[in-house]
Every structure is written in C-alpha cells, then in structure tokens.
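chain below, 423 aa
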Amino acid sequence: MSFSPGLVGPPGGTNIQEQRDRWERKRSRTAKELVQTEQRYCQQLELVTTYFVEILKAKGTLRQDIRESIFSSIKAIHSVNQSLLVHLENSYFGRGFDQFCPHLHHYTMYADNIYKARKALTIQLKKNKSFRRFKKLQEARPEFKSQTLEELLQLPVLRIDQYKHFLQDLTANTSPDNPEFLQLSSAVTAICGVSQRIQDNTRRHENHLQLCRVQKLLKGRKTKVLAAGRWFIREGWLKVVPRKGAAVKPKLFFLFSDMLLQAKRCGPMQLTNRDKFAGQHAYPLQECIVEKVFGHTRSQGGLLSLTFPKANLLLMSCNQEDLNDWYQSLSSAIGKLQSKETVVHQRDELCRRPLRSAADSENTPSSSSNNPGRKRNKVSSETSEQTQRPPSESEGSAPKRMKPSDAPEHSSAEASTSSCMIL
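prediction:
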C-alpha cells in the first residue's frame, strides 16, 4: 500500500481526514513496535558482547582467530544499533535509518560468516571442555532468560528481515510530502538488498548440504557430485525401459542443474555399503532433448524419452503426477542450461573483433615496401629459420598429435557435456 492522499472515494473533507487518520494510526503502531523490538534486540546483543565476547577475550579461553570466527562483527553491530535506538526513541525514524544504512556492511559480513560461525562453535563445544563449561554457566544467568548462545547469534540475521517489514509499513503510511519519506524509501532499498543476500546465502548453504548428502549416499569416490555452480533439483525412482525387451528395472535418479545421475542400490552382500548406491551413468543436460511418450503403459503413468548426443534413455513411471513433475523439472533445467550457454556464446561473438579489415590492409602501405633494405633482412632471416627448423615442423611433415594435458580447457568441457559418462 502506498500513501496517496488524492486517491479518495467520494468527495468530502471528512473522508480524506479519516483516511489520513487511519494511516497515522497504522504508522504509530508500527513505530511503537519497532522501538520496543529494537530495545529488546539491543539488550540481547549486549548479553553476547558483555558475557561472551569481552570475558572470553579477557580470560583467553579461545584464541583470537576462533573468537572472531564465532562472533564475527557482532560487537560492531551492537555499537551501530545503539546509535539507531537513540534516534528511534526520539521518533527520528528517517534520520536514524539514514545514518544506519551506511553501516550495513557489518550485517553483510556477519551474514556471510554465519555458517562458518556455527561450525566453529560446534567444534569448540566438542573439543574445548573449558569453553563448554563457560558457555553453560553464562547461559544459566537470569539475564539470558533460557536463551542459548546459538539462538542469540542468529538474531542479527533475523533482524534484517524484521527491518524490511517495519520500514515497508512505515513508508506505506508516510505521506510523500513528509521529509522522512525519501529517507525511509532509500532505507527500504538498502535493507532489501541485504535481505536478498541473506536469502541467497541460505539457498547456497541448503544446496551444499543436499550435494553432501547425495555424495555420502554414493559408494566410493568415483562419482563426483560436489562441483562449483551445481544445484540439486530433485531425486526419485524411475523404471528404465531397455531396448531389447528385457525386464524393466527401477533405478534411482538424481537431477542436478547440469546432469542427470543414474544409480542402483548396492547388493546385500556388500556389508559396508548396504545402505548406499553405486553411480552408473551421468547424463549431461546441455544437449538433452526430453519428450513425453504416452500409450505404452496400462496404468495412468507414462514414459519420458531423453535423447542425448550419444545415448537414449526411456524412463517409465506409473504415477502421472510424478511423471509430470519429472518432465517439468527436466525441461526447466535443460532450458536454463541452454539459455546460459547461448548468452555466453553471444558474449564471445561480441568480443571477437577483426584486427584489420581487408580494405585497410589494401589501402595501408606496408612498412617493408618503404624500406627495401629492411625487407631483404627479413627475407634472409626467414630463410635462415627455415633451414634451422627441425624436420618434424616442416610443411610437408605430419601434424603433431596434441597430448591430453596440452588440450584447451573448453575442448575437454565440450567432450564431457556431449557424451554420457559411464561410472
């Protein structure tokens, strides 16, 4: 909702005044809630900085690098928010956030480090007995009100999302003629940027956990699931229809943003890998074509036909909804991958420019024609180089075969994406 005093229904000053009063009441409720939550938030930040950061620094229970890894920029955040609270308690919302937003890099740094902080804290709680005892004693203080350190460390990340909603409500119920309107609007933009970054970090972390989970499901280290830029999409069982009329076999498929991985369950005789799967084929999606095939199953399911440059795959499912979900997921992943390749190809074409056109080469006199002596020296040097060149590099000899290590990187990438990898 945006504040627009001119957009009023029936004519009359009472209706305009009633609408303004409603906006003012909403703004007052939002402002009051913002101040109260900010006071509580600053108190919680003070608990962390006073009873953990400062005391741990004085006692030397944790090394400085470990302490910085766990608490990151929370002390700077506490200092910035204390200044913000003073402005909010005096009802200077626009001015307060206008001075607060230039310090949002402390929140960005904290959000980028939050998952490393959790890991470092977990390691110290397992290995460092004195720190584990210290943490338990501090959390038992009445000021903490049964809150743990893990919950308090998550507060700055959660507070950014609260700021976004508070500022959006304040801006929506503030008149554009108010001097604070522009300040609040710019603060909404800045806070939304940090909030989006936090959401992106969360998505990347969850995707990394999914990739690690799938990697642990597969036996051995031959099948590499963890790769930069790879996103997990879905997994499930599908039946592979063979070419020669053999029995249909169920296989477990993992769909990623760049490939489709087929796996089978390990045999019961493998005691150490009974709960794991063996990767069989990795199908790249770059040049894949997926189509629906109907009429080949007696139940309500159907078939999916996947065509790769050097392989064909026919998958069957008896569940129509599951089949449609697989088709949509495959089509979306293939479309995004191919559109990305198209953009990269167009960018490469734009970067390629001829060094000199044919007309310029004809019109521009060569330097060798202006200096015949220099030309003779050049010819003599070329003849001497030809006499000293080894026979393997002469024009009539066969070309030298390139070693795999000498091949360009893009050729290996194209080879991996244009064929099926048998694992």
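The mean pLDDT is 82. The chain has 14 helices and eight strands.
thats it, cya
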